[in-house]
Every structure is written in structure tokens, then in C-alpha cells.
Amino acid sequence: MSPPTPRLRRALLVLTTALAALLCALAPLPAAADGPADTDPADTARAAGDGPADWTARPAGGGADRDARPYVYLEGTPGTALQDRLAVTNSGRAPLTVRLRGDGRAGAWIGFAADTVTVPARTRAEVPLALTVPPDAVPGDASGEVVADDGDEEIRVPVRVRIGGPTLAALTVEDVEISGGTIRYALVNRGNAMLEPRLAVRADGMFGTLLDRPERPLPLELAPGRRVERTEPWPDAPALDAVTVRLRVTAPGGARDEAEASATYLPVAPAVGGGLLVLGGLALLGSGAYRRRRTRRGDPEPPGAESADDRQPTTETRPLVKAGPLVKAGAES
Length: 333
Prior knowledge:
Layout: H1 6-26, H2 41-44, E1 55-59, E2 72-76, E3 81-90, E4 96-103, H3 104-107, E5 110-112, E6 116-119, E7 123-132, E8 140-149, E9 154-163, E10 171-179, E11 182-189, E12 198-205, E13 208-217, E14 227-233, E15 241-251, E16 255-265, H4 268-297
Parallel strand pairs: 2-9
Antiparallel strand pairs: 1-3, 3-7, 4-6, 4-8, 5-7, 8-9, 10-11, 11-14, 12-13, 12-15, 15-16
């Protein structure tokens, strides 16, 4: 058996590098800082009545401010026109001019008695609005907003419309991913009814359950056709384990769905160091075993190897001169 050649040593080096790269790829990356769980712009907009100190916009009626309606709510069948009013209150000392428009699916169905309204100082004005449900509208819930804009700031008033006819509640949870201490997923309303989802989370590892969060309501309303990407924090995720995370979502009306994802947690530094140590130990054991075997079996030195005798200085040798017959000394007879 010949000793490890340069080619074999290079192959061992490549194998070591490949193993280290594989272990790094399996290890989870540090989770990046997460933003707000619900990225829908409508959820971050200023709520009705939370405008600047000198003016407000909200659905008309409801008595005192604390009893005002939180949104415009209308019911009707496809093809009908529904009526309501928007109250704009100017509590400042100068006249206020605001522009009105609709936004979102139901907002596109709204028309105003006047798109631009000027409200005198310390005065409240009520602007009539009409919402016409399209004849081909699908039964269920639709949503939108009324936007009041004074040029510097805007107030958004939510609009909810219940369209008569059979409704379907359908909800899916999709694109589940595990990244360090964060679980990412998406919720999609596949039906025609407004949904208020509830979520349950469970994670199982090699030795049992690691996470078990019971069903709880999520702080959002999911309009038909809407998709929302959310995150679920998991601060005590394991450092070394193979886990499967299962998400279950439900909503009133019988909507229900489940999805899962798997991940392997490996600490990067210990894994890479351990792999290199194992490879180094195997290389040393292999080299030692080869030397012991060669000593026992008396294998010849490989070509090109120098022995101790080869390294000693040499002297020139000359052929011996053949001696003639010896002549015995004495008197000649």
C-alpha cells in the first residue's frame, strides 16, 4: 500500500471544505428584525376620528363622539343604491376645505353630493353619499374607505357592505417558513365573506413538543380576495433539533385550513469545528495505520525515497591487482 499522494491529500482537503460548506448551509441564519406583523396599508392608516385636533371626519349620527359609528355599514342586493352621510367637523378658527373620494373595492362604488366641501370655522357639515352595488356583484362582504383630505393630512373612514345572497367562508394558510426564531406565513380569503381569523401553532421536535399555542384571534379583518403576510415570533427556538411547525387557522362560517413546514437547527461554529476535527482524526488514523502495516510487512521503500545509508558520503573504490604466486624465501637448490 502506497502512502497518501499529493492528489489524495488534495481530495481530502476538498472533502473537508465541502463538509464545512454543507454544515453552514444547514445551519439557520440569524433572524432579521421583523416589522409589523400585518403589512396591509389600511391597517396602519389613521382611524376615523383620530385626525388632527382642529378637524375630524366620521360617519354621521351616533350622538356624542364616543358613541359615533366606527365605520359606514350598508346592506343591499346587487343593483341597489344605498344612502348614508359623512360628517366633517371643523373645530378650528378658519374655514376648512376638504376633498372626498372613495378607495378600495367598495369605495369605488361611492358617489358624493359634492367632492369638495368647505366647512366654516367651528362648524359641522354632513355630506350625503350614495353607494351603488354593481348588478354583477358577488354575494358576500365588500370593504373600502372614504378618504377626506385637506391637502396636508387625510382621514380614512372604513366602509363595510353586506351584499345579499349566499355567502362562502373560505380561508387558506400558505407559504409557511421557519427562519431562526420567526415563523412566517400568509393568510388568504378565498371566499366572499369578511373573515376574522383565529390561529393555533404547534411545533414538534425529535424528542417531543417544543411549542403549543392554543387558538387565538388575530388582530385583523380579512376582506374577500385579500392576502396578508404575517409573522409568529418563536424566541425560544431550539439550537439543535429537527422540527416540524404546524399552523391551523379558522374563521366563523366554517372556514378552516392547516399547513406545516420543517427546519433543521444546527449551531454553525460547533458543527463546522466538529466536522473538521473528525476529518482530521480520520486522516491521522489512516496515515498511522499505513506506517504500522509497512513496518510489519517489510515493504520496500517507494521509488525516490532516501535511506540513511544513501545520505552517507561515498569513497572511490579501485579494482584489486591480482597477486602472483607466492615465492618461498630460501636458498635455491
